[in-house]
């Protein structure tokens, strides 16, 4: 069983090395890490409350010559996102919040990886804690520590252990992610399922689905479990051809009901058809996490069409689901296949995320201030308070003076503002309004 990796990320001088050494209980080992400090000293195994993890000081790994500071920190963050199961984002409580901190936070948020905001240099816990600003990062409650004084480090480690993915051998681990692979006949759904399952390090088993002819495929990769829903016929080569398009829509609907996430498969050669729009619409209506997979990308070779341009085109044709990532892959050549499960993880992180009420209220009150709702019949929409009432998919309830005053355009604007602040890539966001009289 591989150990979870916990990465420390942050600007130079916020105290990453000091924190690293403090956690290792080896004060003065590598403080003021020079570029070129041996790599292995920046990866250390830690045991806390019986849980083992590998702590990485990403700041010490690379000097990043030629890049500005913000670029370096973003680079660290990307590496941490790729490698770590949990990220400790360290900030300087004395310096306060800088613009570039906010940018790095957005990057971390979009990754869907669990992040703890650690506010360092809080050397005196008897004074008011300088945390207010750091809530704005939208990454949950900041944890104050003093790496130099060793204050609150135990509490931080308790949180680290609590945030780590449960051990695979522990009961009550996370439920498998249930994935519906949907699309028109012949776009390559079966080929994709086989290509994903055909990768190394996958353990596969069949489980009965809910109806007589449905078979689901459970598989495990890197300690995580996934289920492909309704793979009857998909995994065998000689499958029964779906004769009518109508049937594939029915089947997609049924599979989506039981899924957390949809891979909506398109065929590069056909572009986006009406039927594709219809199927993507089902995923949106069902409130599922969604990734658009453009298959048969091998056929793009030599056509001069770039992935970027094609992705833009797909987004234009599927504007109503513009939040979904678009991946270009080939089940036949294997191109892009390994990216798919990474993207699934990212979207599922977003799908299940809870936004703290304080953060949400800040975002929406700001949105109302920046662009106030237009008056209707001499009355203007007023926001009292809002709260997240559901996750998976996220739903936000806004208490307002009169829900009748909400225009479709303003609802869209609010949704966009929530997305701009919080990401929610691949996830439909529901915004609900309820009347609350102002006193
Ligand atoms: P890094 O560049 O993020 O790895 O930061 P360092 O760990 O090298 O620390 C940068 C500076 O901040 C050093 O002078 C540390 O002594 C100081 N420092 C680190 N942690 C604390 C702390 O908790 N309180 C105070 N006051 N200073 C700290
Ligand atoms: P399904 O009906 O959606 O399950 O589609 P299949 O997986 O049966 O694939 C339909 C046809 O498309 C088959 O002839 C496949 O060989 C072909 N196909 C699937 N994936 C690719 C791909 O990535 N590139 C190319 N060129 N052909 C593909």
Structural features, described:
The strands form three sheets. The chain has a seven-stranded mixed β-sheet, with helices on both faces. The chain has a six-stranded mixed β-sheet with strand order 2-3-1-4-5-6, sandwiched between helices. Strands 14-15-16 form a three-stranded mixed β-sheet, with helices on one face. The chain is an alpha/beta fold and 439 residues long. 31% of the residues lie in helices and 22% in strands. It has eleven helices and 16 strands. Helix 2 (69-83) runs parallel beside helix 3, helix 6 (245-257) packs parallel to helix 7 (274-285) and helix 10 crosses helix 11. Helix 8 links the parallel strand 12 (289-295) and strand 13 (326-328). The structure holds guanosine-5'-diphosphate (2 copies). The site of one guanosine-5'-diphosphate (GDP) has 18 residues, from helix 1.
Q: Which H/E pattern describes the elements?
A: EHEEHEHEEHEHEEEHEHEHEHHEEHE
- Percentage of helical residues? 25-40%
State the helix count: 11
Q: Which strand order spans the largest sheet, edge to edge or round the barrel?
A: 8-9-10-7-11-12-13
Major beta sheet summary: 7 strands, mixed
Radius of gyration: 24 Å
- DSSP strand tally: 16
What is the averaged pLDDT score? Answer: 84
* Ligand types: guanosine-5'-diphosphate
How would you classify the helix and strand content by structural class? alpha/beta
End-to-end distance, in Å? 58 Å
How would you name the oligomeric state of the polypeptide chains in this document? Answer: single chain
Taken as a percent bin, the fraction of beta residues is 15-25%
Uncertain stretches of 5 or more adjacent residues: 26-41
What general outline do the C-alpha atoms trace?
Answer: globular
